Amino acid sequence: MMNDSTGGDFILVGFSDQPKLEKILFVVILISYLLTLLGNTAIILVSHLDPKLHTPMYYFLTNLSLVDLCLTTSIVPQLLWNLRGPAKTITPIGCAIQLCVSLALGSTECVLLAVMAFDRYAAVCRPLHYATFMHPRLCQTLVGVAWVSGLGNTLIQGTITLQLPLCGHRRLYHFMCEVPAMIKLACVDIHANEIQLFVASLVLLLLPLGLILISYAVIAQQVLRIRSSQAWQKAMRTCGSHILVVTLFYSTITAVYIQPNNSYAHSQGKFITLLYTVVTPTLNPLIYTLRNKDMKGALKRLLGKDPR
After folding, report:
1. What is the mean pLDDT of residues 251-270?
2. What is the 3 state secondary structure string of 189-243?
3. Other residues' Cβ atoms within 10 Å of the Cβ of residue 265
4. How far apart are CA 101 and CA 98, in angstroms?
5. For 8-37, b where at least 16 C-beta lie within 10 A, e where not — what string?
6. pLDDT confidence band for 290 (50 / 70 / 90)
7. What's residue 260's pLDDT?
8. pLDDT number for residue 306
């Protein structure tokens, strides 16, 4: 089934060694993808249509939802096609597009989550000056930095990875074209590429994560000074959703890009990648709507169930 008849296409081995699991994954991922489309599209529309949500927090959230929509769409349709049919292939052009788009969007999300943490810091620690501090021009600049960071990472990592000589190697032990899996196909010494991947991971994964941790450390310190249960509750309402999203995203993506190279080809890496490319974008809208009174109120107003 996976022989040389595929021509110059890449073979995505994925979960083909577990046919029963493929059927289950197909149903689960299809439902998850539909929920991702519905949930993130709803957040974008509601944030745009409701004037009460024209704030920095929902501006950043709209961009996060857009990133998640595009990220899953660059991966899931091809994954569903391969899970459903006997041909587990992707064209070289399709593989290059998938690698570049997913790399750019994943990098953008890393920086965007750090920007959202900075916004939460301003809301909790500078509440009286929040509106003037987080003015529209600053918000647009911060979002621009996130998108440019993703594009820049793709231009560097994606270009270098796609220029590696493969010497006829086309079998990817993954369900998508991703940098760590692609460099394993190279028939040259990839030590320099592994160092470059590690450095990029430090800059675009661990640096934003460090900024997020610093932001929440300052927030915790500020709340501790007040010594009030109401202050804690307000801080958790303000930051709780973002903390959950950061935990889900970073706990999975860092496990893939920082884990030892010799364990990447195993199923553990594939399942972890599923978590941050499929599951996390599905859960993000649920987290931000179920835990957010403003978003739930806006949805009710748009549906005509709340006249206020």
Report:
1. 66
2. CCHHHHHHHHHHHHHHHHHHHHHHHHHHHHHHHHHHHHCCHHHHHHHHHHHHHHH
3. 16
4. 5
5. ebbbbbbbbeeeeebeebbeebeebbeebb
6. low
7. 46
8. 60
